[in-house]
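Tutorial, part two.
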Amino acid sequence: ARIRTARTGTADRSKMLRRASLRASLFWRDFSRGRRSLASLSSGSQLVYDLDSKVNEACAKYAEKRQTGVSLKTLLDTGRGDLLGKARGFLEPEVAQAHTATEQVLIQVAMFLHHELPIRLARRVVDLQRIQLLRDMDSVRLVHRWYAQSFEELLNCPAPNTAEKEEAFANVLQNIYQRHAATLLTMARGAYELRQELGRKGGRARIAFEDHRDIHNFLDSFYMSRIGIRVLIGQYIALREPPVDNYVGLVNTATSPAQVAQAAVEDASYMCERQYGEGASPFWSVWVATMGVMPRCRSGSA
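Running the prediction step on this input gives:
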């Protein structure tokens, strides 16, 4: 049976997430210009999570496994229940008989995440251990411990193959999702710490931060992976919430380009007003240039 699932407070939550991303960008710009101190990014967390040999060995083992790509269509089809009975190994026949359609969908998604997330988290743990220079920054070490802690928690979590175990698994993922909320800012802080160290007289490397292509490539890959992990977890968490029209979890099935453009205008206004004060965001443009850009935006999204 097809089921309809989605999230609550769609517009408000979307705006909140966009604003958080914009604030992160503004923070990083101010750091790079020396306008902010490291204390302003402090998350209040301490380096209290110690890795042991078993966790390191498990991370190395899981990091060698192949991760599974997930398309937007798969997120949509799974959330709707279209793939029930088609996922091999994640939903046993007895589970389908003992649970409702909604419970089956949640168990199916939870079982996949129970298999997939340790692989993705382990890869990030290993990558954070290997990246030269950056790995020694306190903020990066903190992120490393977050990923290792989340990895260990998932390993210790039993397979969510019943409604009760699925609910417990959801609580674990909710905590993991919240733990990593500050990852973007904390990694930016780590990059800033490295920039400061490289700039000091007698620093351990003569190459400027901007010229460390390996670090920039690592950060690009790390952030892309983070997006994928948060989409997977966020979709699962959203599926557990009451339904909203035109949404399947995080997926909007009736996206309006006009609303997206309006949201961009609001975000630009927010950034201007935050930086320069109220009423400082008039929209000025060369009309001919604007008319040339908008059709390209439309054709590029088709």
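The chain has eleven helices and two strands. In part three we will examine how such features are distributed along the chain.
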